[in-house]
Specification:
By secondary structure, this protein is of the alpha/beta class. The protein contains 8 helices and 5 strands, in the order E-H-E-H-H-E-H-E-H-H-E-H-H. A 5-stranded parallel beta sheet has the order 2-3-1-4-5, sandwiched between helices. Helix 1 crosses helix 7. The longest helix is centred in the middle third of the chain and has 20 residues.
Length: 194
């Protein structure tokens, strides 16, 4: 892809509840702002509170929520900004719809095994879902369709946050959405010596 470094794009973080999507989104936001990019984070919890208030957790409502997030991300992208979404977005077909709507779309699968998520779960939501006390809980009583060909997979049970951020930034450079700062710094040093 021969895009230029000021092209807008969306980083679509998908994964189960508690996998680390919001944490990664904030770290990526900081890293991209350092590179002088305008960034908007669309966090699933905040979107549900503000943009999708009143929606439940049926498949139809979940799809409506994701379509709303995709619409806002598409606007940010079209205006040359970087949208970072952090939402479970459990259904593959709806993520594919988002990809088609947005265009410059980088899917990041934030992978973490269920047993680790249960251990990490400070609110006890997984335990309640596993006991059948919470209906339609993604990954337990409701399906989560893993991405088949995401641009990036981060494994939050094995990698540090910094490792995951570096992995995403490196992929953005490979795709042409960001300039490779290591290459440009060494090129400048070579020019200075010449």
């Amino acid at each position: 892809m021969s895009t230029h470094a000021s092209t807008g794009f969306t980083i679509w973080l998908t994964g189960l509840s508690g996998a680390g999507k919001s944490t990664l989104a904030r770290a990526l936001e900081a890293a991209l702002r350092e590179r002088q990019r305008h960034v908007e984070v669309l966090d699933g919890d905040l979107v549900r509170e503000l943009l999708s208030k009143g929606l439940g957790f049926s498949r139809e409502d979940r799809d409506t929520n994701i379509r709303r997030i995709a619409y806002v991300a598409a606007v940010v992208t079209r205006c040359g900004g970087v949208a970072i979404t952090a939402a479970i977005s459990p259904y593959r077909a709806t993520r594919d719809e988002a990809r088609a709507m947005i265009g410059n779309f980088v899917e990041v699968f934030v992978r973490c095994p269920l047993e680790v998520l249960v251990e990490r779960d400070v609110k006890g939501l997984y335990a309640k879902a596993l006991r059948g006390e919470i209906a339609q809980f993604t990954g337990v009583s409701d399906p989560y369709e893993e991405p088949l060909a995401p641009e990036v997979v981060v494994e939050t049970d094995r990698e540090s946050l910094d490792d995951s951020v570096r992995k995403v930034l490196r992929r953005l450079e490979e795709l042409g959405y960001l300039t490779d700062t290591t290459r440009s710094a060494s090129s400048e040093a070579e020019l200075a010596r010449a």
